[in-house]
Structures are given as structure tokens and as C-alpha cells.
Amino acid sequence: MEIMVFFSLLLLVCSVSTNQTEADNEILDQQISNQQPCPQDIHAVLREMTASVAEQKVRTAFLEKQTQGTVSCQVVNKIHCCEQVAKLETEINKVKQELQVKQVAFSASLLDQGSTETGPFNTQITLVFKRVVTNIGNAYNPHTGIFTAPVRGVYHFDWKVYGSGNVETSGVLFRNGEHIFIAYEHQTSGGVSTSNGASLLLDVGDQVFVRLWANSRVHDNQNHHTTFSGHLIFTM
């Protein structure tokens, strides 16, 4: 009887010990499981890190683009500034040129020296006034007898022709190919002088000159009777 009781007590102790050991193992496994993340948690951490890196790349690219834009603006502003300076210099030079061409005046006589008759001819010829006493602006050409307008504006011209004998004396003012006014006189004997004047609106490059009328004659000598003059009144 005593032996049976002993064995019963021994089995109960072993059962309790075994149950206690299994419970301890479950607790330990739970602690280890809490301390070590599962594969699913590792993937989540990696996704967060990837997203963070991508965000940093976007920020870096934005900063680089913004920096490039700032540099580009500086370059553009510098180019714009240089263009403005060049434009200002051009305007200054233009004003200087206009101030210079506003001073236009000339006066010339037919002969530089000696005495001679010119004409008559059966056609018109351009009179070349060779003795130049004034040519401010160099708009009159003493080799061709032609005045060329250097600036758009209103110009005034005067011309006088002198003749002698029983021949017509005349000179016609032309603007390019346009007959403007004529100075004309016909005297049967002795000397005669005739003159005329005109104010003309000229564009740059327009030409003005005096032609000897067909079948007429002019005279000039050291007294310089036959003349051609002009000057700029105002620009437009």
C-alpha cells in the first residue's frame, strides 16, 4: 500500500515538472518572436527606406534644377544688359549723326577761274558748278554738280544764270528726274541775269541739280555770275 502511494506521488511531480517546462519554452519563444522581426516587417522597412531615398532624389533634382535656373537667369540678365548697352550706344551714335547732318549748306559758282560760255546744245545738260565756297556736310559734289540729301527734311535752293547776246539764258532745277522750276530770260543784246528759288521736301538720297535748258546758253567768269546754292531748313 505504501509503495503504491509513493509511485503516485512521483508521477504527479513529473507531470507538473513537464508542464512547467513546456510553459517556460512557450514564453521564451514568444519573447524571441517579439525581439526578432518577421520577414514581412523587414520588407516594410525596406519599402520605407526606398521611398525615403526616392524622395531625397526628387529633392536633389529639384535643387539642381533651381540652381541651374538661377544661373541661367543670371546669364540671360547679363546678355539683356549687354544688349541694352549696345542699343543705347547705337542711339547715341544716331543722335550724333543727326546732329552732324543737320548742318548742311553749300554754295558754288560755275567756273573756278577764267571766262567761258556754256551752250547752246540741242538737249539739256547738267551744269557742274566747280568753284565751291561752302560745302558744310559735303552733300554737294563739285565733280557732278549734284546735291544728294543726307537726311530727310526741307531744303531751300537758289540758282542764278547769266547770259549775253541774242540767245536764251535759262537753268532748270531738277529733283531726281522731276522738273521743278526754271529760271529763264531772253534778251536780244547785252548781258542778262535770271534767277529762281525753291524749297523742297527731300528723302535721304534724293538728288537735286540744275540743268541748262536746250538751245540756251550761260556765261561765267572771274566775277562768278552763274551760281547754285542750297541749305537744310529743318529735318522731318
From TrEMBL:
Residues 1-23 form the signal peptide. GO terms for cellular component: extracellular region. It holds the Pfam family C1q. Keywords: Secreted, Signal. It is found in: Secreted. Residues 99-236 form the C1q domain. The keyword Secreted applies. Transmembrane segments: none annotated. PANTHER family: CEREBELLIN 13-RELATED (PTHR22923:SF102), CEREBELLIN-RELATED (PTHR22923). This is C1q domain-containing protein.
